[in-house]
Input
Amino acid sequence: MGLMEHQYVERATGRVMTERLTADRWVNLLYAEVRENIPFLFRTLTGARASSLFGELWFDRRHGSLRKAAARLMRQWGVDPAELYDDPTALNTPEKLFCRRIRYWETRPLPADAKAVVAAADSRVLVGSLRETSALYVKNKFFSFEELLGADKSAWLDSFAYGDFALFRLTPDKYHYNHVPASGLVLDYYDIEGAYHSCNPEAVVRLVTPYSKNKRTVTILDTDQPGGTGCGLVAMIEVAALMIGDIYPCYSEERYDQPRPVRRGMFLKRGRPKSLFRPGSSTVILLFEPERVRFEEDLVANQRVAGVKTRFSAGFGRPLVETDLRVRSSVGRAVINCY
Output
């Protein structure tokens, strides 16, 4: 049986595009036949060691001449040399190209509205709600909310229960620095160990709630501080995936200068680089307190566009169409808490 196409809406043009999914048939084999029939092998292949090896093979060894491979991938991925921060000739391996830096301050401008919450990555986004009364209600599909933040984090679980979320899915061709979605004070920062499941839509549909099973880094921001965006508490969860070797913390207030790890008590500024996913594809999830963010109308409308072939709709029984957008573009606006 052939695999269904996966399509999305391109935000800049409104066009419906078809995604060329990386290693699609291999992922289907792993999450169907292997997972169901050889579970111990499935656990091995989605572990840290195997994930790192897959990344090395995919981004280096499989390509032969690394310089030629990098040039070929630059064309295949549609990388614009004009937006690069570094000399394009220095990106002479697939891994260096994957970890490229861009002049985001010129090519990914921030919205003028200081209350705008911005995209955490160049990615394909879905927005949703954990409230059954919401038209955007999606619960325990992409992640189990009770697992996502960690079972021992009851305070944060209480804060985000019945809230809203935005899910940013990065593909291998994307710029892989993650940026701060809203200005605020870091209240908590921690890692959760886990597996390295694929973020391919086929794997997500077959496994169900993979993002709360994967290795991830959680940052809790209080944006109601002076100078903050004003959308309450925000949880930024950076999720590792198959072929991702690392989530490298590298917050910089000015361009990519003087990168440093995130720590409790730091004030992070909206739109600044926060971390880097090393080779592969992965996901960033934002959680918001109830009724503290109003998502952009086009993102909500695009999710329901008729006639788009999306594996998420096929798997979850309702329209769920992603929008392709750029990091630092607006995904919603803070709703001021009057109480």
User: Anything to note?
Assistant: The chain has one domain: 7-334.
